[in-house]
Amino acid sequence: MRLTDVVTRCALRKDCQNAEDPMRWLPYTGTQCTKIVQVVPEKIQIQENSTLLTVTVQNLPTLINGQYQCAFRMGNGTPRFTRAELLGNPNKDSANRTLQCETPMRNRLPIIATGKDHMVMTLSVRMDDRDFVEREVTFFNCGDHTSCSSCTDSDFPCAWCVQAHKCTYDREKCTTDTIITGKSLPGPTDSPGPEFCPRIENHVTQILISSDTYYNIRVTALHLLDYQQNFYCRFNMDNVVEVGAIRTKNDQLDILQCNDVQFQYKGKSSKTRAVPFQILWGRNKHPLDNPDTIQVMMYKCQAMASNCGECLTTDSRFDCGWCRDRCTTINECPASIDWLDRNRDCPDPVIHKFFPNHGPTEGGTLITVNGENLGKTYEDTQFGITVAGVRCQSIRELYKPAMQIVCRTGSTETEKSGPVEIDIRNFFQTVSHGVYSYVEPYLIELTPNKGPVSGGTSITITGEYMDAGTKIFVKIGKRKCSNQRLYPGMILCTTPPLGADTNKNSRVVVHFDNAIIDGFTYSYMDDPIILDIKPEKGIYSGGTTIEVTGERLDIISKPHMVVYHRQNSYFGECHNVTADRMYCFSPSFILSHVKSHDISQEDPLTLSYGFIMDHVETLRNLTASRDTRLFMLYPDPHFYPFDDGIRSVFQIKKHDNLLTVNGKNLNLALNEIDVEVMIGNSPCPVTSLSSTVLTCKPPSFDKRTMSDKPDVHISVGNNLTFYIGQLQVETQDSILTLPIIIVIAAGAGVLLIIIVIIVMMYLRKSQESDRAVKRMQNQMDVLEIRVAKECKEAFAELQTDMTELTGDICGPAGIPFRDYRTFCMKVLFPNTPEDEHPVTCFKNHEFLKLNNPEVQKGLQQFHMLIQNKLFLLIFIRTMEQDQGFTAKEKVNVASLTSCALQNRMQYHTEILKTLLADLIEKSMDSRDHPKLLLRRTNSVAEKMLTNWFTFLLYRFLQECVGEPLYMLFRAIKQQIDKGPVDAVTSEARYSLSEDKLIRQQIDYKQMTMYVVDSSFPTSHEHQVRVLDCDTISQVKEKALDAIYKNAPFSSRPDKEELDLEWHTGETGRIILQDEDSTTKQEGEFRKLNTLSHYHVLDNARMALTRKQTSMYNLSMASNRSHINNYSVNYSGSPSLSRSVSPHNIVISDMENGGAKYYHLVKHDFDFHKEGERGNKMVSEIYLTRLLATKGTLQQFVDDLLETIFSTATRRCALPLAIKYMFDFLDDQALQHCITDPEIVHTWKSNSLPLRFWINVVKNPDFVFDIHKSNIVDACLSVAAQTFMDSCSMSEHKLSKDSPSSKLLYAKDIPKYKKWVERYYQDIKQMPAISDQDMNTMLAEESRLHQNEFNLNAALYELFQYVIRYEDDLILNLQEDEFARNYHLVDRLMRVIELFQSDV
Asked: Rounded to two decimals, what is the model's pTM?
């Protein structure tokens, strides 16, 4: 009873609903509980229709509302309900009431488990949707039995119909048949139980037959009926073999004898092979019962033994013997006189090896001797073994006939050496090649000789012959050491704890078999105690010094500090240990699940901690045992580098006393002892340390020992190092001797004469140049004012508050990920729309006549053919050998192959590894530098590698990398939209790309508009931030961004389908357009209309409306079609290298009267006109805007790179595919003896970051359903270039002529490079992935995406290349030996014929 149910719980009468009904509330005395007394029938045969059950219930509760129901449930599965009817008078009081209900239909019942003929279900009666009583019932199915014996032996009423060969519950269905009744079927019968079943028997259940032997099987048949004739024997060998059988009589018994069959099986190493067989009868070939499971056991003597001794000791049932040089039956031996049976002895015993090869002179060492023909029984060698002339007693239990002897050596008085000799029954002798030595182990030293009473101290016993013997152990007192390791010169073990049976000063005794050597005294000391720890805090990277004071600390040889976080432990080594003091390094959490950004100065992480000091348990967790204060974990300190703009050089006078370095979080968990400042190779002792400033005393600056600009490094603990910059030392020393003074005076006199001459010349010409000077001065003043204004604006932009940007883009909007197939298609076939490529078309392919069965058969056979690894590799290599096989075709073949193998990723991976190994081998043999490997797509393998990562990293993109990548895209777009963007050239005020930077002063004003999407009647106003210099198309685009910010780009309307309508009053409405009759004409240029052109006010009301199809609008649409085509002769995305200057971009002439359009910048680049040069501002001044944009976006770039180059971040584990491929490249480097780490680093960078991540970063529209404008694309190109430079190990020498994309992140790239190197190192140190785990992951990926691509279309496209290279492919297949063995040419020709038949 469930106590929580209303009708089945123990309760007071007042709490029971309708308690006045005697069947609703049962008092605690004189009443029996409700229960099912009887179910008829209780065992139910499963039939097509339901069965009516009669259920008798004691104390059935009275029904108030609703109806009774029967519920049938199996285990915890879903119940099946049927209606129950109450029989008799419902108002009549009776202890037992009867219900009738039907069982569920057969299709609603669970399936009976394989090998069973029944299932037990729970029948419960319910009312008011609650069960109140239950009982088990059994459903059975006689039809599940397939043999007479199992049918008639069932616990249920089943019978066997012999001629129909079926088991039935209803005997009426076999009225004309012979029936064998089951043991559980009631009533008299002539053939009861399984003993009357027609069946076969034999005196043995295994009939042993040597392979490659003809044999006829004979078995006894029982209870055969007259109509059971036409017998056959069926054997399931490598192929199914059927032969006829003859029925004969022998002593009134039926004998069935099969015709001769050659029993043979493939495989030389298989010792035996079981062959199930059946005897069939009649036209329908029904099998006779085989209740004893009689079967044939084929065997091969030659596979059972490789030498005579093993052969003659095989199981006697097999009748194997030795024939010259192999194990056979006597019939297989050419000359029976050469055949040795198991009663003979094998000649020529041989000792292959024995171990150990030395032991104590006292004996007792167990020597294991392996060899051939070492006797057949234990008695053959029992008294015939000597070692170095000393008898060795054989051990019966460890003897393995003919193969192995284990004996225990005797003792000898002196050290001696000699071979192992074996005498076999005085007939055959053998002597080992090696010698065994009796030695006397000698103990030299015990270290340490003391430890805590809790034990756990690692001790080392040095000496000679420390590994002599087989049973070696160390005892301290009466207790054994644990964790013992043996070496020739030492024994390592761990001391046990001090026990009641052990003295504090106990003898250390070493046992070498029978030798016992008493060596040293070991002293147990009281466990150490810890009194104080300071400081009880550390930093994230660890390595800071923690001072520990206590007592008896020096009795621990290797103490460690341990800090606990969740279920993990993190350790720090301790050093400088004395009796009362030691120093420990705080543990590092870099490789932990703790993230550095989760720790702050205000909210440090509090952790429990302790010390690992052998087995002293009381110190392992001081927080738990003593309620000590927790260990406080603070963020790492950070030191700011010197900064004078470019060179990171800090100037200091030679005699300055102190050097100061700024930073943050400096003294949260640090003392002066934890920080070391190095100027060049000389230390700078730290004098003070505050939260933001470090002060140290520089050394004396001696040019003989120090460079002019020594580097300054700061080390924090032993895990953190900061490069601060260089010191510029100002020297003031001067040693003026008399000769030097004379020379200086003479030079000064000459200089004075020259100055006088120059002054006189200047005075003559000063009057002539005064006017020119004043004119130039005025121009310079104007230029200086403009430059100062621009620099001031750039500085203000660098201080932009990052929180505003982060708040804007971290809203509740979801990330519009593309689905798996769309993402893969954009990578595999980037130049083909997804819905136009055959591999994504699941209707009839235009080239395939799928209704033609020959084509279908050809595709199936070609699919099977490419599943052959040898064929696929030869096919790819054949194409790549052709000089006309272009790079574009290689990409296409690789992508088609990837699509065809996508549902078998294990095979895909195997093919990829083979092709990559070939590519690496080819690279090693050619003159190409190994670092160029995988850099370009010059082979099918390289594109398949990209596709492989694409298939396997999609989930990682969604769950981990997608968020920071989307945040970077949104941040770039929003920052660009904050300033003017030229609608014609895509140049912007805020840009990371120098090529797309507006290099002029654009006056603009930010505005706010309220826009309604009139296509939705209930749409509310959306606040839109725009600029007064925006074109109408730009305004519409920003409005759509605000209205559809949570929607994928493909789901929102095109801006060209909408008009922007300005509501100037209650009835005034003006449609704004990029070009209309008010557009300004400036010579040959027409300027696109902007909000300021229309004098739109701040906080204006706008509406987006569908374009009307009036004649006026059609005319204007025709005009606007020219506007929408304004472009520059520069298409596509900027390259990752420095692209052309925007001054070289020429605006295309439009067909509209030859007019040229411009928006913000009129590119009339004749800067050399006389009189205009003074008014042109130096364009490089505006490059400071790049720094402003870079500073604003810095955090988003860092987050993306940190996510990609971290083995565990954002709760995402490293994908198995990355670890697996990197391990493969490491193995290939090792295989080709490549020791240069730069080469392997470059391989990894070319394989994953260059081939996959840069493509994703450069093209986020592959991953997300977004629109990527030209200016956003240019900024992403700079980020991708930074990504690429971070993965390179070569040093980039920068100069003033270097691309701005490299200069912009020059200071950040060294940090990013460290991230990449650490990432590769962390992956290398991770445990290798087992083939089972990798195959499981690949199989799951195949299962999840098995129907993403049209397999037939991919196969058809690949087959076109087979037709193109048919002759070369057939020739290469014919030349390959293994291809000939697999008949690959014939199989290929059949496929070609099937396709040609369609033509």
From this structure: 0.48
